[in-house]
Structures are given as structure tokens and as C-alpha cells.
Design brief:
The chain has 224 residues and is α/β, with parallel strands linked by helices. Strand 4, helix 4 and strand 5 (101-105) form a beta-alpha-beta unit. It contains 7 helices and 10 strands. Helices cover 34% and strands 27% of the residues. The chain starts with a helix and ends with a strand. The chain has one domain (24-182): P-loop containing nucleotide triphosphate hydrolases (Rossmann fold). The protein has helices at 3-21, 34-40, 59-72, 88-93, 110-123, 138-142, 146-156, and strands at residues 28-29, 43-44, 47-52, 77-81, 101-105, 128-132, 162-167, 178-190, 198-209, 218-222. Mean pLDDT is 84; it is low at 211-215.
């Protein structure tokens, strides 16, 4: 067999392998924060997105915005609450549709929350599944194995479900397709300093990491 024929066969095999590895871009849905959606393209379906940040960093505000956008699409959502921290009244005020939201409470039990999330994703029928570990102690969240995150990532692959995990720090590592890190930029108060003061508004910054891309959009929330 000539060298030219071998080279042609090798090029054909290589081209086929590269074509097999190519994946179409995933469908995405908006977060409701225009700057963040412009930078990231939105939340990918069939993938894991992590939203991380300390307390009062804007995690909950962003979560309410995501739930409100899902309500506009009339999607059924599921929220697994690992620390009994979800406030349905604030979520409804932000536009979430509580009549299409399954709220599963697993207070102070991250293991049960993980198992519940796995079952919900595998059951299908949910446009959005959220695992809220935002108030779970960092040491507890860190003990969640990479194997567990990998299993959740595999479960949501090739499904139309948007899977979002909230936490104080990033835990899923390479299993997450998108990581959004939140922090508070500044706050607006009413009342005299040193007396009784009320929080009226807060500005938050969000930095996203997706294919080495970073951004710092700002979004504002009013205190309820």
C-alpha cells in the first residue's frame, strides 16, 4: 500500500473522529439579568450551573430572577432546599409561579438533598431543577464527592432541564458547565446613621466563568 493511500486513510479517520467529538451548542434560557445573559448566553439546558457567593451576595436575588423567567415560560420547576432557607413570599413577589414550583425541604441534610435532586432530574418533566446549598456550612458542602456531582451531571445530560446549584463556594469543579460568582457591590440605607436604619436597595456584581470568559455585570435589588 502506497504512502499516499495510507495518508488519505489516516486523514479520513482523523476527520471522522473530530466530527464525532463536535457537540452542538446547548440551548440556553435567560437569567433575567440582561448584562449577565449577554456575557454568558444564559443558563444551558442539560448541564449544571453553579451560582456561588457568601451571604448577602445576590445569590437569592438571582435565584428569584431565574424562577421568574421560568414562570414566563410556564415551566414546572423543582427546588431542593437543603437548609430550609427558601422564602416563598419573596419569590412570589419577584415573579415566581408557586403553583408550578415543587419545594422539597431537606433541612440540614445535604445527603438527602443530593439524593432528592438526583431523583427529580431522572424523573423528568422539570424545566428547572435547583439545589440550594447556599446556607449549608462550607465544610459540609466540601465533603460532597466529585463522584456525586459527576452523577448529577450525567443525569441531566441530554435532557431539557436547567440544573442550578447554589452554594457559598464552588464545589462541582469540572462538572459545572457555567459558574456564576456573586458579591455585593454597595447598599442603600434609609434613616440616620447610628440609629435604626433600613436596607432599601443593594447592588450586586456577578462574575461568570465559561470557557475562560469573565464579566462583571451589576444588577440591583430592592429590599422587601
Amino acid at each position: 500500500m502506497s504512502a499516499a493511500v495510507l495518508q488519505h486513510q489516516f486523514a479520513s479517520v482523523l476527520a471522522g473522529a473530530l466530527a464525532w467529538r463536535e457537540r452542538p451548542a446547548p440551548e440556553t434560557v435567560p437569567t433575567g439579568v440582561a448584562e449577565l445573559d449577554a456575557a454568558t448566553g444564559g443558563l444551558p439546558r442539560g448541564a449544571l450551573t453553579e451560582i456561588v457567593g457568601p451571604a448577602s451576595s445576590g445569590r437569592t436575588t438571582l435565584l428569584h430572577s431565574i424562577l421568574a423567567r421560568a414562570a414566563e415560560r410556564e415551566e414546572v420547576c423543582a427546588l431542593v432546599d437543603a437548609e430550609d432557607a427558601f422564602c416563598p413570599h419573596q419569590a412570589a413577589a419577584a415573579g415566581a409561579a408557586l403553583n408550578r414550583l415543587l419545594w422539597v425541604r431537606c433541612p440540614h441534610n445535604a445527603e438527602h438533598a443530593l439524593k432528592t435532586t438526583d431523583l427529580l432530574i431522572q424523573s423528568g418533566g422539570f424545566g428547572l431543577v435547583i439545589l440550594d446549598l447556599g446556607d449549608t456550612p462550607v465544610a459540609v458542602a466540601r465533603r460532597i464527592s466529585l463522584t456525586s456531582w459527576f452523577r448529577l451531571r450525567r443525569a441531566v445530560e441530554h435532557t431539557p432541564t436547567v440544573f442550578v446549584a447554589l452554594a457559598r463556594q464552588a464545589n462541582a469543579r469540572t462538572c459545572a458547565s457555567l459558574v456564576i460568582e456573586c458579591c455585593r457591590a454597595k447598599a442603600g440605607w434609609s434613616g440616620a446613621r447610628g440609629v435604626s436604619r433600613l436596607l432599601r436597595t443593594a447592588e450586586f456584581q456577578a462574575r461568570s466563568t465559561q470557557k475562560r470568559m469573565q464579566c462583571t455585570p451589576v444588577f440591583t435589588a430592592k429590599a422587601i
